[in-house]
Amino acid sequence: MAFFLETLLGGLMAGMLYSLVALGFVLIFKASGVFNFAQGAMVLFAALAMARFAEWIPAATGIDSPLIANVLAFVGAGAVMFVVAYVIERLVLRHLVNQEGTTLLMATLGITYLLEGFGQTLFGSSIYKIDIGMPKDPVMILESMFEGGILINKEDFYAALIAAALVGALSVFFQKTATGRALRAVADDHQAAQSIGIPLNRIWVTVWCVAGVVALVAGMIWGSKLGVQFSLTTVALRALPVVILGGLTSVPGAIVGGLIIGVGEKLSEVYLGPYVGGGIEIWFAYVLALAFLLFRPQGLFGEKIIDRV
Q1: Could you give the angle at the alpha carbon of 193 between the alpha carbons of 190 and 199, nearest 5°?
Q2: Rounded to whole angstroms, how far apart are CA atoms 204 and 230?
Q3: pLDDT tens digits along 266-304
Q4: Smallest Cα–Cα separation from 45: which of 137, 103, 114?
């Protein structure tokens, strides 16, 4: 039982990190109908900015406190992502309003390669480290309830807490603020929202900025775990099955889908892996996503599309 709970907790913590990346896809798709393939590049670009600012700020200012340096680096990287979001909306999306979905998809692919190349030019192509002070040593919990206790990774635990806090903050933002309600109105019907005076361009800039902050937090966490390198863009590929499972238009779906896939990967690898030679964790999420595409393509919480003739 203790081993099962240990595996389950590990899956939940990994799933929360998948949900964080998937949120970027959902936010942009809800507000603009664009499936943003550049989300992985945004995660990489934000992580590069955070890592490099964390190096440059102490050298330029003489600040000795790692905490203050990381906070300033986070603020600086956040400002960079705001600028990136504004430029993308101003120079690309604004000129592609009401275009075919394929055109918008190709535009986000172009943004992907632009961010990857520009990030390498601006910040360098080495492997960088982000140290935000999260403890990396494992710890035993519930030793009084289970013999030997349950081993959890402190870094994964704190990362899951940060992701959960951001998800909660976004939920409050969407439900309680005027801008959040405007975003939901635009997501429901672009033309109706525009007819009552909601400026679509400002809303799109806002949602891309929010997605940039989500990418920054995801890049900070994954960069702390894996190091900041250009393979970080593949994190977005791990989030694609989460989006398919939860639904492209559902924020709760991104959360639930991430948790299901995180838990499913860990449990299948531990309990089924020995019988099939291992490696289930690599392809489990994609097989599950394929099953949903066949039998429920809108996902668990997505809106079913009805074509009326």
Answers
A1: 95
A2: 27
A3: 888 888 877 777 678 888 888 888 988 888 888 887 666
A4: 114
